[in-house]
Amino acid sequence: GIQVEQSPPDLILQEGANSTLRCNFSDSVNNLQWFHQNPWGQLINLFYIPSGTKQNGRLSATTVATERYSLLYISSSQTTDSGVYFCAVPRERTNNNAGNMLTFGGGTRLMVKP
Amino acid sequence: DTGVSQDPRHKITKRGQNVTFRCDPISEHNRLYWYRQTLGQGPEFLTYFQNEAQLEKSRLLSDRFSAERPKGSFSTLEIQRTEQGDSAMYLCASSLKSASEQYFGPGTRLTVT
Predict the structure, then answer these.
(1) How far apart are CA A19 and CA B19, in angstroms?
(2) Chain A contact for B25, CB < 8 A?
(3) CA of B79, closest CA in chain A: separation in Å?
(4) CB nearest to A99's CB, from B35, B37, B55
(5) Percentages (nearest 5) of helix, strand, coil residues in chain B
(6) Is the pLDDT assigned to residue A5 strictly greater than 90?
(7) pLDDT digits 0-9 by tens, A19-48
(8) B104: closest CA among B21, B26, B1, B9?
(9) pLDDT tens digit sequence for B21-30
(10) Which of A63, B6, B58, B80 is the most exposed place for a label (fewest CB within 10 A)?
(11) Dist CA B82 CA B14 (whole Å)
């Protein structure tokens, strides 16, 4: 199956700082999602971004599918941005059952200090 | 659209007991997924339904685990004879079609004592 690696594993920022989180995957994919997991365990959808660039407020994401990576940018970080950020891609390149079973990276644990 | 819901949110059980969790997907979503997440790890896929048909099961899903989606709407995940290693967050997700965005529920946190 496809392997997913995220970096850095841990990140501590001062409020107001910018950061870039990276997601590398081992094979070409036709979809990719970024999530934020809050302290209560809820996975919150940030981006569905198989390719290209998207922006949502202070967050933006870029996926370069041909080079097998995606980046999540957080600008002007706030304490509420703290939590774990996951990227997820399809478990396999092709799937005969037409499902989209996701493989997650290990996550980036972000702490934003006031 | 009320999102994916799961019940209960927390479950504490003694080793050897059976537990059952429920997931209600977003109403028009015909695809439903179960994942398990242990502390410090990303979620791992367990099983997948398209309507009422269970089309894929992970090797993580031992014989003690069974999942159903009888009418293609809500789903249940049952664990028989629970073990301490079953302690984890159990997450449910749904999507409208394959290769499309999945939406996750709040999860059921299971603790086996």
Answers:
(1) 42
(2) no
(3) 21
(4) B55
(5) 5, 50, 50
(6) yes
(7) 999 999 999 888 999 999 998 899 999 999
(8) B26
(9) 999 999 989 9
(10) B80
(11) 8
